Amino acid sequence: MLDFKDIRINRVDMIEKFVAEFDITALRFFETIYAGDTIHYGAFKVKVYETNYNNDDAPEEIGFTGYTNLRLRDPDGNHEGGIGYGLTIEESLQKTTAYFLDLIEEYKLDKGTGLSKEDFVIIPYDEF
Question: What does residue 29 show for φ and ψ, rounded to 5 degrees?
Fold first, then answer.
């Protein structure tokens, strides 16, 4: 049987295969982020995809990319979430989670106050 990493399709730059999902709980972290006593989101999901860059010149360019379902909403209404790359599922999970928590801390510093429920949005399961 042909492995998806060996598939080459003209006009296709990249193929991603969903390989893992993790539930991340960070209540102690979020206690320091929110204004007030309510923790609106204390957990989030990370989905990890294996990537084939569909490139015969560099077939070794296969890795893993993680994405968070919880996103920050900036003042313009745009959403930014965690993303991380790695050579293994575990490395992409670690980098995605660390980047997202750093992003939240930076956003809180820029805002100058604790965050609220309105600063976040959860992306529907089938959209990330």
Answer: -65, -50
User: What does each C-alpha distance from 106 to 2, 30, 46, 67, 112 come to in angstroms?
Assistant: 44, 13, 20, 18, 10
Phi, psi of 45 (to 5 degrees): -105, 150
Length, in residues, of the chain: 128
Backbone angles phi, psi at 68, to 5 degrees: -95, 150
Each residue's pLDDT tens digit, 30-63:
999 998 878 889 999 999 999 876 655 555 556 8
Other beta carbons less than 10 A from residue 7's beta carbon = 11
pLDDT at residue 93 above 90?
yes
CB–CB of 33/104 below 8 Å? yes
